[in-house]
Amino acid sequence: MTKKNILTIILNSIFVVAFNVFFFVYGGTSHTTSIWICYGFLHFSYLMVLLTSAIETKEYISKLTTYSISLTYFLIELILAIVAFYYGASLKIKIVISVQTILTALYLIILVSNLLANDATASKQARHNIENDFIKTISAKAKYIESITEKPKIKSAISNLYYAIHSSPIKSLSEVSVYEEKITNLLDELEESINQNEEKANELILEIDRLINKRNFTLKSKR
C-alpha cells in the first residue's frame, strides 16, 4: 500500500471516527430504533460520497456535478441524524423509514440518471475526438508528404489534396469508415513512392482525392 493510499484512507476516516466518538460519548449505546435507522443511512450516505469520487472519473465538470449530488444527500442525512438524535423518542419508526426510503430512492434515481447522462456525453465526446483526430492526422500526413518532395507538379497536387482533406467534414459515420481506412493506407503508400515513382505518386494522389470526395459526398447525403 502506497503512502498516498494510506493518507487517503486516514482522510476519509476522519469524519466517521469523529462522528462516532461524539455519538457514543454523548449519547451512549442505548438509542431508539429511529436513531439507529438514521445512523445507518448517514453512514451509507458518507460511503456514497466516497464511492462517487472513486467511480466518477470523467471530466471535471461532470465529476463535480455527480459529487455534489452525493454530498447534498450526505448533508441532508446529517441533518436528519442530528434531528433524530434530539427527538428520537418522539419519532415514529414508520415515518422515519418512509422518509429515509423516499429520500434515498430520489437520491439514487438522480445519481444514476446523472451517471448515465455523463457516460452518454463522454461517449459522444470520445467519438468526436476520434473523428477529429482522423482529419487532423491525414491533414498532417499530407502536409508532411508535400514537404518531402522537390517536384513542383507533385508538390502542387499534394497541396490541393491537403486543402481538400483540411476542408472535409470532421463528423464521420460507419458508412464511410472503409473510405477512411483506404485513404490512410494510400497516404502511407504515397509517402513511400513520392520521390521514387512519379507516375505512381500521381495515381495515388488522384485516388486519394477521389476517395475524399466520395467520403464527403456520402456524409452530406446522410445529413
Question: What descriptors fit this protein?
Answer:
mainly alpha
What is the rounded Rg? 31 Å
What's the tally of helices?
Answer: 7
In sequence order, what are the helices and strands, one letter per element?
HHHHHHH
Instruction: Estimate percent helicity.
Output: over 70%
Net shape:
elongated
N-C termini distance? 53 Å
* Helix/strand structural class: mainly alpha
Mean pLDDT metric:
83
Secondary structure: number of strands = 0
Q: How would you characterize the largest beta sheet?
A: none
Poorly predicted parts: none
Percent of residues in beta strands: under 5%
Per-chain topology:
Elements: H1 3-27, H2 33-55, H3 60-87, H4 93-147, H5 152-166, H6 177-193, H7 198-221
Helix pairs in contact: 2-3, 2-4, 3-4, 4-5, 4-6, 5-7, 6-7
Describe the protein in words:
The protein has 223 residues and is an all-alpha fold. It contains 7 helices and no strands. Helix 3 packs antiparallel against helix 4, helix 4 packs parallel to helix 6 and helix 6 runs antiparallel to helix 7. The model has no long low-confidence stretch (mean pLDDT 83).
Would you kindly provide a brief summary of this structure?
This protein has 223 residues and is mostly helical.
